[in-house]
C-alpha cells in the first residue's frame, strides 16, 4: 500500500472527536461527499503501521472496519502486520447536539502501534 499524503506540507489537521464523527463519518454513512481529503479509508490491519503514512508524518486519521477476533464475538483483533494496535488512551464518549438535545454520537479511542516484542516502531 502506498503511503497516504492527505494534508499539504506545512498544514496540520486537528479535528475534534465530534467533528470527525459528525462531519466525516456521518457524511460517509449517508453517502455524502467528505469535506476534503484529510481522512482516508485504510486497511489498518493488513498494513504495517509505519507504511500507512508518508515518511514525514507521525499521525493520521483513518476510517477502518472493525475486525472481530472470531465470528459473532465482541472482541476486536488488533493484529497489524508484524505487530498490533494497542489502546493508548481510555475510550471516551463523544457527545453532540442532535435535534436540540445533547446525545452520545460515538466513542473516541487512541491507539499506538507496537511491534512483536512489545516495542514501538521508534524503539521505545
From TrEMBL:
One of its GO terms (biological process) is regulation of DNA-templated transcription. The keyword NAD does not apply. Keywords: DNA-binding, Nucleus, Transcription, Transcription regulation. InterPro entries: NAC-dom, NAC_dom_sf. Residues 7-124 form the NAC domain. The keyword GTP-binding does not apply. PROSITE patterns: NAC (PS51005). Pfam families: NAM. GO terms for molecular function: DNA binding. PANTHER family: NAC DOMAIN-CONTAINING PROTEIN 104, NAC TRANSCRIPTION FACTOR 56. This is (wild Malaysian banana) hypothetical protein. The lineage of its organism: Eukaryota, Viridiplantae, Streptophyta, Embryophyta, Tracheophyta.
